[in-house]
Amino acid sequence: MEDTLINGQIEKNKKNIEQILEYIYDKTKFDFREYKHSTAFRRISRRFYYCEVDNFSQYFDYIIKNYMECLRLVNDLLISVTEFFRDREQWRFLYEKYLPEILQIKENKDCVRVWCAGCASGEEAYSLAIILEEIIEKYRLKNEYKIIATDIAVSHIYRAQSGIYKKESLKNLPFEFIREKYFSTDNDFIIIKKEIKKRIEFKFHSLTDNNFFPSQDLIICRNTLIYFTRKLQARIIKGFCDCLDKNGALWLGKAENIFKEYELRFKFIDPINKFFIYGR
Ligand SMILES: C[S@@+](CC[C@H](N)C(=O)[O-])C[C@H]1O[C@@H](n2cnc3c(N)ncnc32)[C@H](O)[C@@H]1O
Predict the structure, then answer these.
(1) Cα separations (Å) of 151 from 148, 157, 207?
(2) Would you say residue 189 lies in a domain?
(3) Is there a single domain that holds both residue 25 and residue 123?
(4) How buried is 65 (Cβ within 10 angstroms: 0-12 exposed, 13-18 middle, 19+ buried)?
(5) Mutation to probe ligand 1, out of 156, 224, 227 (largest number of atoms < 8 A from CB)
(6) Ligand 1, pocket residues at CB < 6 Å
């Protein structure tokens, strides 16, 4: 019932939503035009209260006169929720099964490449570097690896590059020793140790551009595609397919999936636990 009401509201305000997203693109070059209208609807509605407006048409007039509000909306649309080792069981699968195999296949041959797309403030990329270090140590491997972590928001990239987080952000560690081994502490903050920081190249990059990073063994893109229209998701998944190396895998968020047309190119690595990890 609530969904039907919201869908009705989204349909009713479709034109205004499109106008607002077009205006944002024109003024800031942030391209939300192929993001789901439901997300835009919710995020824009939340701004009404702060701008003292009642509807989408008034809000559009407001942002035309107020560039700062335009930027605040951009910030709200770039949903940045993340955490270290988010979805722990999936990390465990990566740690116990997928990554040891890939590292062993590539040992003494080639560098292992991972692209972490939509990395937000970096916790996911650092979790990955920690896991890779642990596997290399556990199996006494000699692999080189390279992690590229990208996001459309420069502010997120700066935060990620700093490697400084609040102490509470380590509440979900899979193993307690990780805290000591990979982080130093400064009052209420924790700082990623240099050895891990230097393993990751953080970069500005938009998934809406058709310009991807080739030859990847693993692409991690979690909880980002979910905000995009089906058409944009399909275009990006095709781009990911073209960038994966032989035996490469794609790791999506729990609520995300590949589309029928790509099923032949991927095999479900772990159907029992329904992990969103696919390999060619
Ligand atoms: C909810 S966070 C996901 C963070 C992390 N992957 C995780 O699952 O914990 C979504 C991230 O996608 C980024 N994003 C949104 N649109 C993007 C685009 N077109 N290109 C690249 N990143 C984008 C946002 O800035 C945000 O940092």
Answers:
(1) 10, 7, 8
(2) yes
(3) no
(4) exposed
(5) 224
(6) 78-82, 86, 118-120, 124, 151-153, 156, 206-208, 222-224, 253
Distance from residue 175's CA to the centre of ligand 1 (Å): 26
* 183-214 per-residue burial string, b: 16 or more CB within 10 A, e: under 16: beeeeeebebeeebbebbebeebbbbeeebbe
CB neighbours (10 Å) of residue 170? 19
105 and 237 inside one domain:
yes
Based on the domain organization, do 106 and 61 belong to the same domain? no
| 124 assigned to some structural domain | yes
Cα–ligand 1 centroid distance for 120 (angstroms): 5
Helix-helix angle 2-12:14-28, to 10 degrees: 60
Q: How many domains would you assign to the chain? A: 2
254: pLDDT confidence band, cut at 50, 70 and 90? confident
Q: Which of 77, 102, 120 is the last residue of a domain?
A: 77
- From 124, 132, 266, select the one nearest 195 (Cα to Cα): 132
Q: Which amino acid is located at 166 in the chain?
A: K
**Could you give the residue ranges of the DSSP H alpha helices within 139-210?**
154-162, 177-182, 194-197
For the stretch 176-207, pLDDT in tens is: 788 889 999 999 999 999 999 999 999 999 99
Same domain, 147 and 256: yes
Mean pLDDT computed over 32-50: 95
Q: What is the pLDDT of residue 41?
A: 95
Q: For position 272, what pLDDT does the model report?
A: 64
Q: Which amino acid is at 120?
A: A
Whether residue 124 has pLDDT greater than 90? yes
